[in-house]
Amino acid sequence: MVSSLASTGIAIPSRAMLLTFILLLPLQILSAAEPNESGNFPQSQSLSHYSTGFLEGNVNIGDGTSFDVRIDYPSTNGSGEMAEMAWDGGPFPMVVFFVDEGEDLDNYGWITQSLASSGYIIVIPEARWDTDEVEVLLREMSGLYSAFGNVNVSGFEGGNQPDNFIGGFDLDHWGVGGHGTGATLAATVQVAWDFQINNDTLAPPRALFGLGLDKADMPSLANLMPHYPKPTYALFMTGTVDEIAPAYQNVKVLLEDWSGGWHFMEVRGANHLQYQDESGFIERLSDGDAVITKSEQQSHALEHISPYLDLILKGDHNDWLVASNREADYSYISDGISYLDEDLSGARLLHVADAKGPEDDVELGNMSNFSMLTMHRNGDFIAEDDSGFEFNCTVIGHESIWAVGSIDPSNARSSCELNLDQLSPGMYEVLLSASHNAMPASLRLEVVRGNTGLNQTDPIPAIILDQHGTVTVSADDFATDPDGQPIHFQNATWMAAEGEYFDLTIAGPNMTIDHTSMPEWSGSTLLAVTLIESNTENPDTLDLVAQVTVVAVDDQVVSLGQIPSQQMY
Length: 569
Known about the structure:
Strand order of the largest sheet: 3-1-2-5-4-6-7-8-9-10
CATH class of the largest domain: Alpha Beta
Number of domains: 3
Shape: elongated
Number of helices: 7
Strand content: 25-35%
């Protein structure tokens, strides 16, 4: 745990701009659960809507741990150090941006100040973590998050924070991003947050973007026990001539095991270092030669990162088409200078909740209704006649059983009906999937296909065999299963002493009876039979009594040998 210190707040000694963030309370270890996303989003703004202020200082999260940070934020009445934070449009989402290994905090102004100008508070911590220091990284990031929570309530120690800082942070909606190894740190913070922090009061970083991601020594995703916080959609960009962190060795390897939704842009002609403000001669020798200019590369990135953050952290679904490169047509992705790939199967970009299905077992011949609430994440309803909306239900593992549904705009409930007669009895999962202009979300729901009892053949057929003969009968002769499941013999017992005259063998769906003793006996006796379904849970059984009749046979005389000739005297 992080220990609390005696004093609280943030102190700024004169012009040195030393910031000291101190936690009010130690972190409490609680049961792990992702807090629900708030539907109260700030308004999205264009780039350069605000002027920008900044602070540089040192974060003290307690327990002797501190590190340098830079903060870029939206301001009013001009830019500069300690400028007044903007009040209109706030509170503002926070984005923690991790720099590449060895880079300075102020080497990414092109993105941090630009994003701040559109209504984001950008926190840039020093490059202090290796990519395999997961536990340390997450502990210190939770301390950073908690420290800004205290700032949002109480301000800096001594009250010398910029005007409007108190209450200016929207910590329900925050995200992470980074460049190079910083992009790997950002990805690690997002997916490992739930398992490492184990705290249901700290909102997870819901947005994630990475530029030129460099995996370095990042542990495997499986070792991170990953959880992908809603809305579960990440953006990655790497240049085709990035020779420091080439995509095929880094981000593409990561995405092979990434279970959340993602969108990847491989930018033609872009390299690694042009995602920085400045780069040294020596490090440029390790990178590829860019075909596009630094300005083009950075502008292209901002054109996608800005709407992406507005989509995720400000709930502006109008930005979806631009953020996902669907401006031309929502049914496919395209970009003028990028190769694109994506996987939306794990994304949950709409608000879906309260899935409902049949409460009782579904019996043969009944239609089943499935439904869920479906709306935009800011609470706006979807129109019934919206051509971009789709809803369907599918039985997982039995994808041929599916149906298209619709939405009721009066209560935002999407619904569909399924005929489950083709399924054998048992438990199944139904996937309820909604999408709006290809922006997806889904929920799963369990349903039990009920077991319909066996139907006895009427009348019960008699079993007839010849004296000292053999007969084989099938279970299907005595009953049928409306669910189409195979029927087997479970047991058979003779009900009279005459049963001793027979041998009886059960082999699954077949039963064989041999008349083996008292060869001249003929007549009838009774056999108690139990039938059972197979290939189903909780199989139904059926007890019946069948008559077994042995028919007399006029046996032919059998010659035992030749009669010897006789002499008559």
